[in-house]
Amino acid sequence: MKTTISQVPQYKEQTVTIGAWLNNKRSSGKIAFLQLRDGTGFMQGVVAKNDVSEEVFQLAKNMTQESSMYITGKIVEDKRSSFGYEMQVSGIELIHEAVDYPITPKEHGTEFLMDHRHLWLRSKRQHAIMKIRNEIIRATYQFFNDNGYVKIDPPILTGASAEGTTELFHTQYFDEEAYLSQSGQLYLEAAAMAFGKVFSFGPTFRAEKSKTRRHLIEFWMIEPEMAFVEHEESLEIQEQYVSFVVQSVLENCKLELNVLERDTSKLEKIKAPFPRISYDDAIELLKEKGFTDIEWGEDFGAPHETAIAENFDMPVFITNYPAEIKAFYMKPVPGRPEVVLCADLIAPEGYGEIIGGSERIDDLALMEERYSQHNLEGEAYNWYLELRKYGSVPHSGFGLGLERTVAWLSGAEHVRETIPFPRLLNRLYP
Ligand code: 4AD
Ligand code: MG
Fold first, then answer.
1. Ligand 1 pocket, residue 163 CB under 6 Å
2. Domain spanning 118-417 has what CATH number?
3. 354: Cβ below 6 Å to ligand 1?
4. What is the CATH number of domain 2-96?
5. How many angstroms is it from 416 CA to the middle of ligand 2?
6. Burial of residue 229, with CB atoms counted within 10 A of its CB: 0-12 exposed, 13-18 middle, 19 or more buried
7. Nearest protein CA to atom 24 of ligand 1, as residue
8. Does residue 406 line the site of ligand 1, with CB under 6 A?
9. How does 148-174 read in b/e, with b if 16+ C-beta sit within 10 Å?
């Protein structure tokens, strides 16, 4: 019977065949322990000299790391391993012998591993992180599908910027200039007026010269946009969504969290509602915490976010930032036009901003005013203005950065480990 490691629990005390690679190996005179992986999981195969032919035993003993094989044996319970099962091997058919696999069980430097990302992905740790990423994606689709959202795919090639012009990737579009999308938001606003509640999930690009553990040049964003939803209701949707994702990962990625030695007690607490702190109060809090020279009107950097987050064991919304430091489309707080109806959601444990969101300006005259203040006039934006001309309604939306969320839930130090092939300031290979 041919199966996979993930299906092994169904075959207790039965003999199965698995297509696998050798991840690692230990052997003594009479026994070889093969650490196997097949993509779906990791499992030990035990080859006892007395149970197999001399040929199979020699094959097992001399097998090199990352060689591929069909391996056959009886599945038995193994209480000592976190997986819970192992194979008592009866036969091995070598498919391909790998010679001098570069990533050995010893420690390697980060740059070396990044240069071998195409192989590094096979490691137990990277496997666990990618499985958590996959679970976040799965839970995201489930949450928005179950709640009546329509998935809309905005274009990647765009004629206008959504988040400001400094971080744009320019590209030639025949005889026009185009940009790679920084955010699908403007298009999602159009879609929300057509479908009510929508979301997108796709790659976004920021030509940011930031070399931090939170910044990628190409990253994936989940962007919901909702018609007839005002700021406060949007925050409630965000906390419901994030709680759902965290609880799904806890439930469906137990093995992976265990491999990563993630302290899950911190994640178990993550349940809506999340605390909120206004930008004004956050400034006061920072001053009390020793950031004496921060002034009202300044944006927060990573150290500020971390200091604010320390006061909570939940993700925290920082609300109502100054209009000056936020995007042109955010709706002013009624009676206080210097601040806007927006929030950044800051993850606990120093993982920083995972969501940026806001209620959007729905008034045509005000949007036109913002256009001239931000020098945005031009054809590229006309269609966006028209959304305020024909049946404008209050609407809100937000963007969750997938990789920062993966980093938080898996406990990864740096976002470079949270996407299969990271694009960083100094890296386009492999
Ligand atoms: O706060 P941002 O820039 O918001 C927007 O783009 C809005 N248009 C979204 C919306 O309202 N539809 O980005 C949203 C999130 C951030 O909170 C962060 O998690 C992630 O995207 N992000 C990055 N992740 C990795 N590398 C980068 N360079 C990122 N820039 C933003
Ligand atoms: Mg932001």
1. yes
2. 3.30.930.10
3. yes
4. 2.40.50.140
5. 19
6. buried
7. 401
8. no
9. ebeebebeeebebbbbeeebbeeeeee
Element (H, E) at 220: strand 218-227
Cβ–ligand 1 contact at 198 (below 6 Å): no
Contact 260, 411 (CB under 8 A): yes
Indicate the domain borders of the chain.
2-96, 118-417
Q: Which residues, listed in sequence order, are joined to residue 396 by a DSSP beta bridge?
A: 226, 359
* Local confidence pLDDT in tens for the 430 residues of the chain: 999 999 999 999 999 999 999 999 999 899 999 999 999 999 999 999 999 999 999 999 999 999 999 999 999 999 999 899 999 999 999 999 999 999 998 999 999 999 999 999 999 999 999 999 999 999 999 999 999 999 999 999 999 888 877 899 999 999 999 999 999 999 999 999 999 999 999 999 999 898 999 999 999 999 999 999 999 999 999 999 999 999 999 999 999 999 999 999 999 999 999 999 999 999 999 999 999 999 999 999 999 999 999 999 999 999 999 999 999 999 999 999 999 999 999 999 999 999 999 999 999 999 999 999 998 888 888 999 999 999 999 999 999 999 999 999 999 999 999 999 999 999 999 9
Report helix, strand and coil shares of the chain as percent, to nearest 5. Answer: 35, 30, 35
